Amino acid sequence: MFATLLGPLPRPPLDADAGTDDLVSAAVGAQEEAGLEPITDGGFGVGLSPVERWRRTAGITDRAVKAVLEGPYTTGRAGGGADQTILAAADSLNATLRALAAAGCPMIEIHEPLATRVGSDEGDRARFREAHRRLLAGVDGPHLSLAITGGSADIAGTETLLAAPYASLAVDLIAGPDNWRLVVATPGDRGIVCGALSPELGSDDSVEVLLWAAAYAASTGERGPARVGLATASSLAALTWEVAVAKMRRLGEAARLADLPPDELRRSIDPRAVDIRSAALGRVEPARRTRDAPAGRGERD
After folding, report:
1. Is 68 helix (H, G, I), strand (E, B) or coil?
2. Domain annotation covers residue 294
3. 289 in a domain, yes or no?
4. Cα–Cα distance, 30 to 39 (Å, whole number)
5. What is the tally of structural domains in the chain?
6. Residue 70 lies in a domain
7. N or C: at which end does the chain have fewer Cβ atoms within 10 angstroms?
C-alpha cells in the first residue's frame, strides 16, 4: 500500500531568500523521510511549466514523482463556467498531459475540487464528462488519477466522474464523507486513494482510523489492497511545518503497517481496526502496548 499527498505543504522553515530548488528539496526530503510515494513538489514549483516542475522534482529523488494539475472543470468554472471555457481548458490541458507523458512522467493527478458542485444538473454532468474525455484523449503511458477534495461529489455519480478512462479516483473522506458512496460505486479494476488523514490541527490521526479506511476501500468491488492508497484529505498548507511533517509521518506509518502480515498487524495496533466483526461480538482482547506501537482509539477512551 502506498501513501501520498493530496494538496500542497506549508513553507519549510528555510531562510526568506530560499529559492525554488531549496523549497522543493525540503518538501521532497520530508516526504521521503515519512515514507510517502509518489512524491510531489509540495506546491513549490511556481513559475515553471508542468513538465519542468516534474523533471526538477524527479531529478532529486529516486522515488516515483507525480505531476499535479488543476482540472478543466475547475479551471473553466473559475473563468466564467461557460461550456466553451471549460472545453477550451480541457483541450489546452490535453497538450500538457501529452507533453508529460512524452517526458516519462509515471503518474498525473487531476484535481477537480469544483466537481463537488456538479450535483444532479444534467447539463453540468454532460460538461464534466465531455471535458474529461477531451482531457484524456490520446494520453497513453502515465497512470491517470482524478482527485476530488473539499467536499462530497457523490451526487454527480461515478458515471459522470469516471466517464473518462481514469485508472484511479482519489477522494476527500474528511470534508466529504459521502464520497464513500463513490468508493463503493467505483469499479473494482479502478484504484482508490483514501484521503483519510485530516488537514485540521488536533484531528484524530491514529493509524487505526487510516487502516480501517484502507481496508474498507479494498473490500469494495473486490478491489483488493493492491489498488488502494492512503492520502491526506486535502492541503496541509494552513498548518505549521512541524505539524504537517508529523501528519505525513503518521500517513507513512499507516501504509507501512498495512503491508504487515495479519497476525503481526494485530500485535501492532488495536485489533478492532482490522477485525470489526469480532470486535462487535466481543471477541477481541485489547492490544498490548509496546514502546513503539501507537495507542489505539479504544485505549484512549
Report:
1. strand
2. no
3. no
4. 10
5. 1
6. yes
7. C
Q: Extract the C-alpha cell encoding 65.
A: 514523482
d(CA 115, CA 104): 28
Q: Which residues contact 121 (CB under 8 A, 6 or more apart)?
A: none
Residue 239 CA, distance from chain mean position: 18
**Rounded (5°) CA angle 142-52-246:** 80
Could you tell me the CATH number of the domain that includes residue 73?
3.20.20.210
Query: Is residue 298 a part of any domain in this protein?
Result: no
pLDDT in tens, the chain (301 residues): 999 999 999 999 999 999 999 999 999 999 999 999 999 999 998 888 999 999 999 999 999 999 999 999 999 988 777 789 999 999 999 999 999 999 999 999 999 999 999 999 999 999 999 999 999 999 999 999 999 999 999 999 999 999 999 999 999 999 999 999 999 999 999 999 999 999 999 999 999 999 999 999 999 999 999 999 999 999 999 999 999 999 999 999 999 999 888 888 877 776 665 554 443 333 334 444 333 433 433 333 3
> What is the layout of strands, in order, in the sheet containing 66-70?
2-4, 228-232, 191-197, 168-172, 143-148, 107-111, 66-70
